[in-house]
Specification:
Elements lengths: L63 H6 L21 H15 L5 H16 L13 E8 L5 H10 L8 H8 L9 E7 L3 H9 L4 E2 L2 E3 L6 H12 L3 H7 L21 E3 L6 H18 L7 H14 L3 H15 L13 H7 L12 H5 L22 H8 L8 E6 L4 E5 L2 H17 L6
Antiparallel strand pairs: 1-2, 2-3, 4-5, 6-7
Helix pairs in contact: 2-3, 4-5, 5-6, 10-11, 10-14, 11-14
């Protein structure tokens, strides 16, 4: 029986590997080694209660989570004040007070768990939590933030936090909502500072001087086509010129037939009038710099980039990067009797069928049966080349796989990135069943 294929997931996009890449980790990767940038980025329970009044009312509905998102009210879950105040001040405190009462009344039945989940937000509503803003005047250093077409305050807010600009993931968004700030975000790379107030961020984004017209920011896991699209948009270089610039890899000292995997993910600043070949040359040199730093021999560059690109697309957490690397190495060994040399990676099969970013983690029948040199379900060994760009972490993982006996891995929760690594096919089937159950419970989860 053919072993079940590895099941991996897109959203950093978003702000993200992060929202935009099906297997990117966003999600929470360690800083060892750091995800390099150029210059380095400093930074992308339901519970109901009995009625509090003797007056009959409809069945309680909603959850504590809905209170914080505004999708329900204290009245809907059965905890509205009997006599609403004449003025609508302190509504958040009523919510917090209602939840505190729920917690106090349900300590024996799980109040402690509820406090662990909602305690910080209750404190924030009551004014006792950590403030969401830095103090004015704290701003220091430099940070880069990329805004893309269609970005809003809600999508930009976590990007700012990840770059070290704001104090919380929702700082900017809450500031804009609370102060009725109307603002249209213009695409581009912006130079900001660390530890800014949201008010200062809006002012900086309004200032054209902070928009870096000749800067390009590429995240990990992008294909060559995706990278060229971003370069064209952010640097204002005609796409046709970029296509011509990458047509002959030997121009940049690359012996491969394509520059796939050779466009390093980083933030770049260019002078006015920079040409397409100059941009590509710098990005390829940046890849070589990373390979040299990792101790990759010149003759081994393409192989390491190929492995690193698979890791970049398949792994979630930084720890998983090194485990996925081990799975690849174990499957490439001649004594592999589990998959008999077949890598069976969804990412490679999807790439070969032009379905790498089709929006689903599982491969289509077309991708699995497609006869191309990237289909590692049909052909043993590594694919003919990289499938995406890889950052420093993936390159390091490709060079230093952690010790382990695993031949399989399956991401069993696409929301958290939880991944199960298995040694036997029987254990892999259990993990696949766990993933399938998650998919049934989350029909819109990206399976």
């Amino acid at each position: 029986m053919q072993p079940a294929r590895d099941t991996q997931s897109a959203a950093w996009q978003a702000a993200a590997r992060r929202a935009d890449a099906p297997r990117s980790g966003s999600e929470s990767r360690r800083n060892e080694p750091s995800r390099d940038r150029e210059p380095a980025l400093v930074g992308a329970g339901a519970g109901t209660a009995a009625a509090a009044s003797a007056t009959p009312r409809s069945t309680a509905s909603g959850s504590l989570e809905d209170l914080f998102t505004g999708e329900t009210t204290t009245q809907q879950i059965g905890w509205a004040p009997q006599k609403p105040p004449k003025r609508r001040r302190g509504g958040g405190r009523w919510i917090a007070l209602a939840i505190v009462l729920i917690l106090v009344g349900g300590v024996a039945g799980g109040g402690f768990a509820l406090w662990n989940t909602y305690g910080e937000r209750i404190q924030a509503f009551l004014g006792n939590g950590e403030p969401l803003e830095y103090e004015a005047g704290q701003a220091t250093g430099e940070a880069r933030v990329t805004i893309v077409s269609g970005d809003t305050g809600q999508s930009v807010s976590p990007k700012l936090f990840e770059a070290g600009v704001t104090k919380a993931t929702n700082s900017l968004y809450k500031y804009m909502v609370d102060n009725a700030v109307g603002f249209t975000f213009q695409p581009g790379v912006y130079k900001l500072q660390q530890q800014m107030t949201s008010e200062a961020v809006i002012a900086a984004l309004r200032d054209p001087a902070n928009r870096l017209d000749n800067s390009v920011q590429l995240r990990e896991g992008l294909t060559l086509t995706q990278s060229l699209d971003i370069i064209s948009e952010q640097a204002g270089i005609a796409r046709a010129d970029l296509d011509a610039a990458v047509a002959t890899p030997s121009t940049y000292g690359v012996s491969a037939s394509t520059l796939e995997g050779w466009i390093f993910p980083a933030t770049y600043d260019f002078d006015d009038g920079v040409t397409a070949p100059q941009v590509i040359d710098r990005m390829v040199k940046r890849t070589i710099e990373s390979l040299d730093k990792a101790g990759v021999a010149p003759n081994d560059r393409e192989r390491i980039l190929t492995i690193a690109s698979i890791i970049e697309r398949e792994a979630r957490s930084s720890e998983d990067f090194y485990k996925v690397s081990r799975v690849i190495e174990n499957r490439l060994q001649p004594d592999n009797t589990e998959t008999h040399g077949l890598l069976q990676m969804d990412s490679t099969a999807q790439y070969g069928a032009n379905e790498l970013d089709a929006g689903a983690s599982s491969s289509s029948a077309n991708a699995l049966n497609s006869d191309n040199p990237y289909n590692t379900y049909k052909y043993p060994g590594l694919p003919v080349g990289p499938i995406a760009n890889a950052g420093d972490l993936a390159i390091d993982a490709a060079m230093h796989p952690v010790d382990g006996p695993w031949y399989y891995f399956t991401t069993v929760n696409l929301s958290t990135g939880e991944t199960v690594f298995s040694t036997t096919y029987a254990d892999q089937e259990k993990a696949v069943a766990q993933f399938q159950q998650w998919c049934r419970e989350n029909p819109n989860g990206g399976c």
